[in-house]
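A.,

Following up on our hallway conversation. Structure tokens first:
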């Protein structure tokens, strides 16, 4: 308890966990990831909690992972250093913070609903997709531009299982936004609601599920998650996770990062983003 980056509320049988770094669009630093894990576990252990809502304070659900320095935060310092020190240290830290913590949310016995809005980018998509149901506000921007910066689609490759393999290749290989209506049509999102209805609709759905017999709900969840695993999801996550580590360590990635850091030194993160997305913005204007 005493969490700094998470809000935890109980609304009758519903636990609502809010990512609470609104000034950063809820980018996930080390502390937030650990606190979210603790909060989710607390809700899952509580027999009075029948559904969990995961949402974001401010304008966005989450803009991804945050590896930036936070003065005085030793946890963040250690996380950053391990991410940079060596391939094996990065493997360890991404195992601990990304893969395992994501899977822990997926494997909660309590049903989870992600209420998403604004930026849902990179690690934000990963996190939302660990939830059983997703309700999206109309202003949601689903975006995984990881291959533009020589990544490999993220640490946990959720998209093929959400929107299909062919569509995933298109969106990863262009780095374009995934249109929200398409995400809904393909089954990634349960429904889209007006921005000002997001909170109420997520709560309504959670309260509806909370009326159902909880043991039966939990058993069904377990069976369906297992079915996805038997269909190859668990193995695919593991396999992609290792290839993702390779993507961090390629010559291509080293060259790209060296060039990008020149732009960051000149103009900060804005310069980095311009270097990454500039060529594609030009393409987008031409509509291919
Ligand atoms: Zn990574």
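Then the amino acids I'd put at each of the 288 positions:
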């Amino acid at each position: 308890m005493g969490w700094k980056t998470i809000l935890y509320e109980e609304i009758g049988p519903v636990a609502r966990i809010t990512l609470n770094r609104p000034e950063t669009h809820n980018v996930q630093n080390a502390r937030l990831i650990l606190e979210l894990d603790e909060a989710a576990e607390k809700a899952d252990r509580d027999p009075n909690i029948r559904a969990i809502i995961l949402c974001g304070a401010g304008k966005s659900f989450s803009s991804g992972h945050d590896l930036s320095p936070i003065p005085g935060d030793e946890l963040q310092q250690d996380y950053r250093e391990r991410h940079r020190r060596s391939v094996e240290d990065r493997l360890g830290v991404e195992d601990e913070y990304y893969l395992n913590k994501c899977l822990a949310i997926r494997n909660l016995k309590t049903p989870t609903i992600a209420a998403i809005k604004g930026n849902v980018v990179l690690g934000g998509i990963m996190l939302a997709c660990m939830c059983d149901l997703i309700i999206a506000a109309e202003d949601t921007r689903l975006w995984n531009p990881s291959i533009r910066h020589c990544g490999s689609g993220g640490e946990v490759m959720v998209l093929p299982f959400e929107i299909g393999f062919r569509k995933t290749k298109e969106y990863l290989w262009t780095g374009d936004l995934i249109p929200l209506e398409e995400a809904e049509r393909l089954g990634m999102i349960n429904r889209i609601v007006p921005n000002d209805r997001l909170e109420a609709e997520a709560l309504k759905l959670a309260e509806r599920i909370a009326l159902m017999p909880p043991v039966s709900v939990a058993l069904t969840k377990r069976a369906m998650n297992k079915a996805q695993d038997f269909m190859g999801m668990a193995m695919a996550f593991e396999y992609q996770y290792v290839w993702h580590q390779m993507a961090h360590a390629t010559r291509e990635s080293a060259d790209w990062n060296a060039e990008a850091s020149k732009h960051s030194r000149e103009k900060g993160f804005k310069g980095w983003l311009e270097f990454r997305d500039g060529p594609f913005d030009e393409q987008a204007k031409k509509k291919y």
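The chain has a mean pLDDT of 95. Curious whether your intuition agrees with the design.

B.
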